[in-house]
Structure formats: C-alpha cells, structure tokens
Design a protein that fits this description.
The structure holds 2 protein chains of 2 kinds. Chain A is α/β, with parallel strands linked by helices. Chain A is built from 12 helices and 15 strands. Chain A is elongated, with a radius of gyration of 23 Å. By secondary structure, chain B is an all-alpha fold. Chain B has one domain. Helix content of chain B is 64%, strand content 1%. Classes of the chains: A alpha/beta, B mainly alpha. Chains A and B meet through helix 4, strand 7, helix 5, helix 6 and helix 7 of A and helix 1 and helix 5 of B.
C-alpha cells in the first residue's frame, strides 16, 4: 500500500479532536450535518459527522471504500434514519422536514435505476411529476443536456450502464434544483462521457447550482470541485477548499533512473527509516529545504534524477492516501440482517 | 452532452406544488402497473377462467359433476348468469388471493428489487401517501380483474347458455337485472375480502426487499389459517380470522338477503385491512431504504 504515509496520523488523530467545520463565510450553508450518526448493528457506519456544504459549492465527497459516503447521502436525503444527529438541507431539517427539503434537491444514490419497460421520456415524466409540474420541453431540454435525445423513446431496459447514468443525471436536473447530489456519476461512462459530465458539473456550478459530488476518482474531484471533505470510518478527516487539500507531512517523492542506488544515497543522508518505496517512488521524510542538497548528492553519486515532488506540490491523491491509507480497507457496513431481524425496519427493533 | 446546462428558472424547485397529489400518485401507480407484463397475465386469467368453465360445461352437458365443484356450478347449464358466479367461487378461495398477494407483494418490495424505490423516495413523496396509493392501486387492479371476470362470465354465459331470471337459494326468482345486481354485490364482497390479502401482502412488501418473500409469506399465512379453521378443534378461532368469511357472499342469494354474516364478514375485512395497512405504514415509515 503506502508505507511512506501509512504511519502518518490524520489531523484529527494528531489533535485528538474532531475537525472543525469550515465556515461558509458570507455564503449560506445548503447542506449541513450535525453530529450525524448511524449504527448498523455493531458497526458505526457514520460517527458524529459534521460537514457543511455552502451554496454555490461544487463539493467533493471523498473517502475510501466503506468509509460511509453512501450512508451519509442516504441519511442526508432521508432514505435511512439516523441513530442520532440530523441534517439540514436547504434550510429544512431532515428527517423532520424531509419533503420540504427534497423539493429543492435532485440526484441519485448508487446506480440510478428506472422502470425498464418504459421509455426514457416516460420515466422522466413519471419521476418529474412527483416533484411538481414538468413540461415536455423541459424533458427534451434535460435529455439534450445529457445527450440522450435520440434515445428518448427507447425502453430504458435496453440502455447501457452509462446511458442509465446519463438518464439519472437528467432526472436530477428536471426541476432545476438548488442542490444536486450525485453519487459516482461518472461510473460506467467512457472517457468522453466522463469529460462531458465534468463539464456539465462545472457549468451547473457556474450557474449557481450547488453540486454535491461523491466520487472515488480523486482527479475528478480535483478538477471539478471547489471544496471537498474526506471521510474515513464515518468521520470527517478533513474538509476545506480543494486547493488547500495537500499533504501536510514533509514527505518528498523522488524518482530516479536507479532507485536502488538512490535509496542508498538518501538513507545515508537522512537515515534508514526516512526512506521508503511506494509505487516506484522513493518517499523521503525530509523538508522542502532539503531538496537542493538531496539532488546535489544524488547527482554527485551518478544517479540521474527524473523527478522530485515536495509535499506542497503533491496532489489530492497523495493527501487522500496520507489521511486514509492506514485503515481504508475496512469492510462495508452490513446492509442485511439475518433471520427474522431482516423483517424489521433498520435500527428500530 | 450539450454544454448548455444552465438551469432554467421556469422549472425552479420553488415552483407550485403539484395539484391533485392523490390523483397524481394513483395515476403514477396505474402507469407502473400497465408497464408490467404480469398485470396482463392475471387479467387474462380473469377473462379465461369463466370462458373455460362455460366451455367445459357446454361440452360436457348438464350437471357433469353430479353436484360437485364450486358453488353455483350445477346451475350454469340452465342459466348463463351463473357462469360469473361459478367463476368467482372458483377463483376466490385461491387464485384471487394469489393474484392479490402477487400484486401487493410486488408493490414496494418489487420497487426495492428493481432499485427504483430509492429514486422514488428521493422525490418529495410522503411514505404514508406512497403506501396508501399502493394499497388503493392494488384494490383497483383487482377490481378491474373482477370486472373482466364478470364481463367474461356474462358474455360466455350468454353465448353458451343464455341469460335468464335467476333462482335464489331460497327458491324465489329474480329478474336478470336484479340477478346482475346481486352478482355485482358478490364481486364487491369478494373484493373486500381481497383487501385483507392486499394489506397482508403490502405489510410484507413494506418490510422485505423481496417481492417473492412477500408473496410466499402472505400465501403461507393464508393457507395455514385456512387449514387451521378446517379443524373443529380450532372453531374458537373462526370468528377472528378473515378467511372464515370469504364465501359468505352466497347470502346475497337468499331472499331476503341474509345480512348478518355479510356484515360480520365486511367488519372483519375492514378491521384486518385497516390494522394490517396501519402496521405496514408504521413499519415502512421507519424503514431504512438500503436496497
């Protein structure tokens, strides 16, 4: 995995406190969770989560598998009930004022699914009528936006996964909601489709729509989002502007033509425990100030240096791995209970 | 995708609420039913059974079973009016409950299986009105089935045997139109009986994510109750369980109509339907939708 960063503590672990919420400043919060907690049997899928999405944000929601991302979305949109805590969506408390909140929200959780024997248009008509009046012109418009105009009258049962993803986005856009929640919207799309979706999200953001984007594609979040939160084990690890989400450690990534010889040189300089390997890079625990001397010694030893990336220049991926690498392989919470307990609603026995 | 993705103010989420929420919900459920192939299979069965009864009796001649078989079967060859009643008698003990359990069992669990439940519940739909619209639509669906059965029974009864004034169980004779009214009352009673099955299936549908589980659970409970009340040891149970009253619609064919068992049956159906649907609502309201 990532030995160089595996031992790095998360900010919250270092400080021993929950990360403070980022203030929206002059902007209004559109989605806020307050100590949101969800327990599935013995597993605490979401643990006192406090996140804040501000109006106009394109908000990235990141976390390793099993971190609780989808559970948080389900909680925020009232599909499941919190064990404790609550959410506020567009000024309405969830679950208490769920219908009022959902009137301002569009989106999907997990893979978007539709009635297979109905056409794309009829599905949109059916879904749209649940929120309010929707005109045929608007249906045409959203189908055009997601590039499904030519398949408007085709049965959804014959759609590919990517086409269903596009239709999911179309139904989310139908009523031009203030908040759009997209759970892995580029999953199953080809590179062209992924690019289109990213452009669409940017344009929605530019038009003032708040987008809550759950994704495991870090570069996607990096390219599209203005703010992001990283969660792990159902807790906020860090949240803030994407531009500020960079590794806080002093690790420097080094790539040379002879990594073995370079490792020997650097261990001699910084100590054996300060140099580790990760995905072809040498990870050196050294400050940015040490880089010139590091390069000079490598060159002096006849090692051709290809790349040196100090911590501040490393991307979101490195930061994500630094924060979540130690425990990202936790199994997902159980969704099914055994025996008769399955016949009872979750968490309320 | 087009790059012209800006939201249109004309469709803002602050727009007026949909008028006629109840009709809107029922219309959506009706459309969903029409887009399921199984819906037509059951309706087809409702048309075919009276035809088969009429055809079989026409081909076999008078009184083919020596008085055996469903209620009113022995009267069919003398009067086509009895075809619909015989079909109702044949369907009510098992096939109609099976259809009711299948339709209602699929209503919520089927959507969970399909994955549409989570999409639907992300819309501003109250779970209470959602489950109520499901219940109403299951009843409407069965009502359509009974109307088809009635129409088919009358049509094929007329074709094979002709429609004549009916003789009641008390021996009096009633006109064709009077008889038709009594047959409609019998069908409505049968529909009320099916409301209990619908409610039971909807309860299982609400708490399970498998329509097959909901169907099987409903049918198993129905059969177990039927078996239990067949034994005299469990006579004390009879007044409390709704299947005990299923065949009491024959009392419409007494002259005068013997209302006491009919009203008892309707009261039992009402209490069970309301109780089971209420429990389904309470459980579904608190259900975590994880499907």
């Amino acid at each position: 995995m990532t030995p160089a960063v595996a031992d790095v503590q998360t900010p919250s672990e270092r400080e021993g406190t929950r990360p403070e919420q980022q203030s929206c400043g002059d902007r209004v919060p559109i989605l806020t969770t307050h100590a949101l907690t969800k327990q599935f049997g013995s597993i605490r899928a979401v643990d006192g989560l406090d996140i804040q999405v501000c109006r106009g944000d394109i908000f990235g929601f990141l976390g390793p598998n099993g971190a609780g991302k989808t559970t948080v979305i389900r909680l925020a949109l009232g599909l499941i009930h919190p064990t404790s805590g609550y959410s506020e969506v567009c000024g309405h408390r969830v679950p208490g004022e769920l219908q009022s909140a959902l009137r301002h929200v569009g989106g999907f959780v997990d893979d978007p699914t539709f009635y297979p024997l109905m056409s794309a248009r009829r599905n949109l008509r059916l879904m749209g009528s649940m929120t309010g009046p929707v005109t045929e012109e608007r249906i045409d418009e959203v189908l055009e936006i997601v590039g499904l105009s030519e398949r408007a009258e085709s049965r959804v049962g014959g759609f590919s996964h990517g086409m269903k993803q596009r239709l999911g986005i179309a139904q989310a856009l139908l009523h031009s909601p203030e908040l759009i929640v997209l759970d892995e919207p580029t999953s199953g799309l080809d590179p062209r489709g992924m690019k289109d979706v990213r452009e669409l999200i940017r344009e929605l953001g530019a038009a003032g729509t708040t987008v809550f984007l759950s994704s495991h594609l870090l570069h996607e979040v990096e390219q599209v989002c203005t703010r992001a939160v990283i969660i792990n084990r159902g807790k906020v690890v860090v949240q803030g502007p994407v531009s500020e989400l960079r590794p806080q450690s002093d690790a420097v990534k080094v790539l040379t033509e002879d990594q073995g010889k370079a490792a020997d040189t650097l261990r001699a300089q910084f100590g054996a425990g300060s140099v580790l390997e990760d995905e072809g890079f040498l990870i050196v625990q050294a400050g940015e100030d040490a880089v010139p001397e590091m390069v000079r010694r490598l060159v002096a030893d006849g090692v051709a240096v290809r790349a040196v990336v100090p911590a501040p220049e490393q991307g979101l991926e490195d930061f994500f791995l630094e924060l979540t690498g130690t425990d990202g392989d936790r199994p997902a919470p159980k969704k099914r209970r055994a025996g008769l307990a399955r016949l009872l609603p979750g968490g309320r026995r | 995708m087009s790059t012209a993705a800006g939201p249109s103010a004309a469709h803002g989420s602050t727009g007026p609420r949909m008028r006629g929420h109840a009709w809107g919900a029922l219309r959506r459920e009706w459309i969903k039913l029409l887009y399921q192939r199984r819906s037509y299979l059951i309706w087809g069965g409702a048309v075919v059974v009276p035809f088969l009864i009429a055809l079989a009796l026409y081909l076999a001649g008078a009184d083919p079973h020596g008085g055996e078989g469903p209620l009113f079967l022995q009267n069919v060859t003398s009067n086509g009016m009895y075809v619909a009643l015989a079909a109702l008698s044949a369907l009510l003990p098992f096939l109609l409950p099976l259809a009711a359990a299948m339709v209602a069992g699929y209503m919520i669990a089927g959507e969970a299986e399909l994955g549409t439940l989570r999409i639907v519940l992300l819309r501003p739909v109250r779970r209470g009105s959602f489950i109520l619209s499901k219940w109403v639509m299951a009843i409407i669906y069965l009502a359509v089935g009974l109307v088809l059965m009635l129409a088919s029974g009358l049509l094929f009864g007329a074709v094979f045997f002709g429609l004549r004034p009916m003789i009641t169980l008390s021996g009096s004779t009633v006109s064709v139109w009077h008889g038709l009214g009594l047959i409609v009352l019998c069908c409505l009673y049968g529909l009320a009986a099916m409301a209990c099955i619908v409610s039971l299936a909807l309860l299982f549908s609400a708490i399970s994510d498998s329509s097959l589980t909901a169907l099987i659970a409903t049918i198993v409970i129905y059969i177990v109750v039927q078996v239990l009340i067949a034994f005299s040891y469990f006579d004390w149970l009879r007044p409390w369980v709704f299947p005990n009253y299923f065949l009491d619609y024959i009392n419409f064919f007494r002259d005068p109509i013997y209302w006491t068992p009919i009203l008892k049956g309707l009261a039992s159906f009402g209490v069970w339907s309301f109780g089971l649907t209420f429990v389904a609502y309470v459980l579904f309201r608190r259900k975590d939708v994880l499907s």
